[in-house]
Design brief:
single chain, Jelly Rolls, 1 helix, 39% strand, four-stranded antiparallel sheet, alpha+beta, 2 domains
Length: 159
């Protein structure tokens, strides 16, 4: 056989084997697992009807350093029993946050101390629908921001 023909034949066989290996690597069938969609229902919903979650942001406050205490009404209903209070303390002293029932001096349902320059969240499910107050006190002046959310479920609080 002629040297030129041998070289062409060898090159052709080499190229064919490379393309054969490459194409077989890409020809492997890939299948993604298939799952049946799952309907997620609220607990206790035996009707099969999907009930949308609900949440609301009743109020937000900005403290400008002009006072040492403040109090704000927070209504909790049977439909929205979950509460979240996000606090940012921009002041130079600790901020004490309490949630009380019926008035700013009522039964304490929860409390939190936020150090200067820090942020924190007070959250939970209230045991019943009622009128609550979120109270803020400091040995210095209140400086920072607060926002609230009431929701139908823990997930709706966005924690």
């Amino acid at each position: 056989m002629n040297k030129e023909i041998k070289r062409i034949l060898a090159t052709t066989i080499s190229a064919a084997s490379i393309f054969s290996v490459a194409s077989s690597a890409f020809a492997e069938e890939v299948s993604l697992p298939t799952t049946t969609p799952v309907l997620i229902e609220k607990p206790g919903d035996e009707t099969g009807v999907i009930v949308p979650f609900a949440s609301d942001k009743p109020w937000s406050l900005n403290f400008d350093g002009s006072r040492t205490s403040d109090s704000k009404l927070l209504a909790v209903t049977e439909d929205l029993p979950w509460v979240k209070v996000q606090i940012k303390n921009s002041g130079t002293t600790k901020m004490i946050v309490t949630i009380t029932q019926h008035s700013s001096t009522g039964k304490v349902m929860g409390s939190l101390t936020v150090d200067p320059g820090k942020s924190d969240t007070l959250w939970g499910q209230m045991p019943y629908a009622d009128t609550f107050y979120v109270n803020f006190t400091s040995t210095g002046t209140l400086k920072g921001a607060v926002s609230t959310r009431v929701a139908s479920t823990y997930e709706e609080l966005g924690l």
